[in-house]
Design goal:
The protein has 17 helices and no strands. The protein is an all-alpha fold. The protein has one domain. Helix 2 runs parallel beside helix 16, helix 3 packs parallel to helix 10 and helix 10 packs parallel to helix 13. It is globular. The two termini are 26 Å apart.
């Protein structure tokens, strides 16, 4: 199949099955990271990279869906987008947050960690964890993982309006200018903060710096990928570079190597993630299909949102309940991961999937 035929197939695809598999690849290192009790050397300490891969996938998918809605209907409905996001994200999020409140109120001892949780509760409830919660404390921060969900929702609060603004452009080329420039500007600002720039205007510890540092470069990279592949010329370029059957395996291998080696810049690892996502969608019969498209791998990816919300609490409970010999990171991973998948699966079937059927359709 040539690039034009592949492009038509890409534009008509309702789902990208391998991205569910990549979500599974994302959640396992995140789970492992929270099984450990401190930083580990080498690749074993790179679990947080899983969150970045989640971000790339999310940025790509949301951008692609919004662009297709614009093509199908002539506009982007911000109300419809927020309704879909609310039904997908809020019920389980606030349900799990309520469980944390009950635990803090009835079970958690009266200690600094409990007081810190209740002080931070308004920020957990308003998706502003990454702006206002104090992480510089000598004890674990309950519900700390919500920082990543806050970063996503903050981006998507404005992104439909950025894409929708292009509708008012008179020239077809100009309609791409606004979202591309916004994405690149956000990338530049975030990378500037990561590399110690803007210190004069954004002092260390200031609210302004925390807000700017909350920009997630991999979401921007995923959004740029969605913009690139939506355009026929952009897709042709990506297909020329990543349209070989072995491209996905090469990208995945390079990503694993970047995690194994010390000193690899984070931005380069995030770029390799973006190339991996691109390779998996421009050529559906890629070399990782045998791994990523296995039913159980895709299912873990499908319920990965629930796994992310439940896993820290279940790991914490297991550490208290299991004998000391079974609380090493390896044993916790082996014993608790299947339980977490089961809990997330039950949540998906009983709560999430019924609510997903209520979402307004875009196509």
């Amino acid at each position: 199949m040539g690039s034009d035929g592949a492009y038509e197939s890409y534009r008509s695809a309702a789902r990208f099955p391998s991205l569910d598999g990549l979500r599974c690849v994302s959640i396992v290192p995140v789970f492992w990271h929270h099984c450990t009790t401190g930083p580990l050397p080498g690749i074993l300490g790179k679990g947080p990279l899983g969150v970045d891969l989640f971000f790339v996938i999310s940025g790509f998918l949301i951008t692609t869906l919004l662009l297709r809605e614009r093509d199908d209907t002539g506009r982007i409905s911000a109300r419809g987008f927020y309704a879909r996001r609310a039904l997908r994200i809020f019920p389980l999020y606030y349900g799990v947050l309520a469980l944390y409140v009950v635990n803090a109120w009835l079970i958690m001892p009266h200690a600094p960690q409990r007081a810190h949780f209740f002080r931070s509760l308004p920020f957990f409830a308003t998706y502003t964890t990454n702006w206002f919660v104090d992480f510089a404390v000598p004890h674990p921060v309950s519900f700390a993982f919500s920082w990543s969900l806050a970063a996503e929702e903050q981006f998507y609060l404005v992104w439909p309006w950025v894409l929708g603004a292009t509708l008012f452009a008179s020239a077809p080329r100009t309609r791409w200018l606004v979202p591309v420039l916004v994405s690149l500007a956000l990338l530049a600002v975030d990378q500037g903060v990561e590399h110690g720039l803007w210190m004069g205007a954004l002092p260390e510890g200031s609210l302004a710096r925390r807000m700017v540092a909350s920009i997630a470069s991999p979401i921007c990279m995923g959004a740029l990928l969605g913009l690139l592949l939506h355009a026929r010329r952009g897709y042709r370029l990506a297909y020329a570079v990543l349209g070989r059957s072995w491209s996905a395996a090469i990208a995945f291998g390079a990503l694993v190597l970047s995690a194994y080696l010390d000193g690899v810049p984070l931005w380069l690892a995030q770029l390799l993630m973006t190339l991996l996502v691109a390779a998996c969608v421009v050529r559906p019969d890629h070399s990782l299909v045998a791994l990523l498209d296995r039913p159980w791998v895709r299912w873990v990816g499908t319920v990965s949102y629930g796994i992310y919300l439940f896993h820290v609490g279940l790991i914490t409970f297991a550490r208290r309940a299991l004998p000391d010999a079974l609380t090493t990171p390896g044993w916790v991973l082996v014993l608790v991961f299947p339980v977490t998948v089961a809990v997330a699966s039950a949540s998906f079937v009983a709560l999430e999937r019924p609510l997903l059927r209520l979402r307004p359709r875009t196509r």
